[in-house]
Design goal:
Layout (H helix, E strand, L loop, with lengths): L1 H5 L1 H4 L6 E11 L2 E9 L5 E13 L4 E8 L7 E3 L2 E3 L12 E7 L7 E6 L8 H7 L5 H16 L1
Antiparallel strand pairs: 1-2, 2-3, 3-4, 4-7, 5-6, 7-8
């Protein structure tokens, strides 16, 4: 489960909003700078520059994948599929967000996944529609994650 959620090579298999991502700088084995592009509609995208930190706590059977928006010169903004350096382009901003993946102790093949999304005001619309019931893209992505995991068994 953890490897599937962590891997950008496989994220498109389950995340219905995912368009592309790349690691623009590896800081160490647990931290990197990521440029992430997600689809906000069939024709529009929003990008993020994120500090991603990964922690494993064996005593809790838990992994945490934490993201937080930062600025980095190697993560140029993407607008309509084209890279740009224009400052007037609005880049998505995430506050402390990410995944907590906890393996169930009594069931060897089960894990509990918690997704935490804290957004700045310019990015609130990405999750608001799901929260008020106008969209279900986040729920559908996690249903797809479950399907992908079940297919691998």
């Amino acid at each position: 489960m953890f490897n599937l959620v962590k891997s950008f090579d496989r994220r498109g298999e389950w995340d219905l909003t995912f368009k592309e991502a790349k690691i623009v700088e590896k800081i160490d084995d647990s931290n990197d700078i990521v440029h992430l592009v997600i689809k906000t509609s069939p024709t529009a995208c929003r990008d993020f520059c994120l500090l991603r930190s990964i922690r494993h706590t064996p005593s809790l059977n838990q992994y945490v994948i934490s993201n937080h928006s930062i600025d980095h010169p190697a993560a140029r903004k993407i607008v309509d599929g084209s890279k740009t350096d224009k400052d007037e382009i609005s880049r998505g901003q995430l506050l402390a967000s990410g995944f907590v993946i906890k393996k169930k102790v009594r069931v060897t093949s089960a894990s509990e996944v918690t997704y935490i999304a804290q957004t700045a005001s310019n990015t609130l619309g990405l999750v608001l529609a799901d929260l008020v019931g106008q969209s279900n893209i986040i729920r559908m992505s996690f249903m797809k994650l479950r399907t992908v995991l079940e297919e691998k068994k």
